[in-house]
Specification:
Elements lengths: L4 E13 L9 E4 L4 E4 L3 H16 L10 E5 L6 E5 L11 H6 L1 E3 L7 E3 L3 E3 L3 E2 L5 E3 L4 E6 L21 H11 L6 E7 L2 E12 L5 E3 L9 H9 L3 E5 L2 E5 L2 H17 L15 E7 L2 H7 E5 L8 E5 L6 E4 L16 H15 L10
Antiparallel strand pairs: 1-13, 1-17, 2-3, 4-5, 6-7, 8-13, 9-13, 10-13, 11-12, 14-16, 15-16, 17-20, 18-19
Helix pairs in contact: 1-5, 5-7
Protein name: CRISPR-associated protein Cas7
Length: about 350
């Protein structure tokens, strides 16, 4: 019997980069080796995969509604804006909603939630000694001093009143100060090393949306709308569901296989571009095989704890090694078309599953 899961592990090399933009590089502390580990959250990896998916299909992502509520302030003329929960369309005809999941909770309305059939880990170091934060922190600047007349500087007093140019000039003369067009950003760190990410694909729910009314994934009106668009009533191990039309599935599967291997942290999610070249991809229907195929291993020939990366083709998973891997892993001999082969392996596994006649226990 074919496993209803596809497991994938990707190994990437990151060099002098930042995975996030808020408060610098995110990190956690490894308790065994006492080192700070840079990481990119699973949500960030998932969004990057969804971006690669919609880009490959040349379709826009699902429209998200951002809600703001206007409130009166303490003073009669004062108006305050409060941001509320954004609304998802909860529409699986959008591919990023079908594969990425959604949730919408409104007071007095249906609470609709679909868990993504893709379970995605954070991208983190292959081993605590093989990647993480760079030891040397750096100071950054947001600098526009080359064109001072083009980038204005505004000064306000304690009451909030903006000072005129003459008042600013007099203030600077008296205090013997200057106000450059520059912001100083101290103590920022970057990430370097070998990083891995893991993905589990649940084929049972990949193209099926549950019609269970106790934990609804669809609004009742959306059920009839999907049926009119060619979605068929079916059943999987979780109960009754609607299955996406075959032509949609055939269109989505190659794009999904490509996105799982070739995603990038896009420009609006990372401060510094890094090629983050993929060194190896392991694919299996057994999650334990991934851990052995791409792993870090402690060395025994050194006094201080040191680790080395290992690519093991005998661990049970299908291993695809690229040409750049030889620059970081001793004895790694890759192929120019390794990622293409990994895509085809994933695509074959996606197509081999019988979505229309799933084996459901009596």
């Amino acid at each position: 019997m074919q496993s209803p899961y596809i497991y994938l592990r990707g190994l990437r090399h990151a060099e002098h980069t930042v995975f996030s933009v808020q408060d610098g590089q995110k990190y956690y502390r490894d308790p065994q080796f006492g080192t700070n580990q840079a990481y990119s959250s699973g949500q960030q990896v998932k969004r990057s995969i969804m971006d690669a998916l919609t880009t490959g299909l040349n379709v826009p992502p699902a429209p998200i509604t951002f809600n703001w509520q206007v409130k009166k302030g303490k003073k009669a003329e004062e108006i305050q804006f409060e941001q509320k929960e954004p609304w998802s369309p909860c529409d699986p005809t959008h591919v990023d909603q079908l594969l990425g999941g959604y949730m919408r909770a409104e007071t007095g309305e249906f609470t609709i939630k679909r868990r993504s059939p893709l379970s995605i880990s954070a991208m983190r170091p292959l081993h605590p000694l093989l990647g993480g934060l760079e030891q040397q922190k750096e100071n950054l600047t947001f600098d526009r001093t080359s064109h001072p007349s083009h980038h204005p500087v505004r000064v306000r007093d304690e009451s909030g009143k903006e000072l005129s140019k003459e008042e600013v000039d007099a203030l600077l003369l008296n205090t013997k100060r200057n106000l450059p067009n520059r912001i100083w950003i101290p103590d920022h760190s970057r990430a370097s090393g070998l990083f891995v990410y893991d993905v589990a694909v649940d084929l049972r729910t990949l193209f099926c949306v549950s019609t269970n009314t106790l934990e609804p994934e669809l609004h009742p009106s959306k059920v009839e709308e999907l049926k009119a668009q060619g979605w068929t009533e079916s059943r999987n191990v979780f109960g009754p569901c609607l299955l996406a039309p075959r032509e949609q599935r055939e269109k989505y599967m190659p794009a999904l296989a490509h996105a799982l291997v070739n995603w990038r942290i896009t420009s609006n999610q990372a401060r510094t571009f890094s090629l983050m070249e993929t060194l190896a991809v392991a694919v299996s229907d057994n999650a334990n095989h991934l851990a052995g195929a791409i792993r870090g291993q402690l060395r025994e020939d050194t006094e201080r704890p040191t680790a080395k990366p290992v690519l093991d083709e005998t661990a049970g998973a299908k291993l695809y090694t690229t040409l750049p891997a030889g620059g970081y892993i001793a004895g790694a001999y890759g192929a120019a078309d390794a990622l293409d082969q990994a895509e085809q392996d994933i695509l074959a596994r996606l197509r081999a599953f019988d979505y229309e006649n799933q084996n459901v226990p009596a």
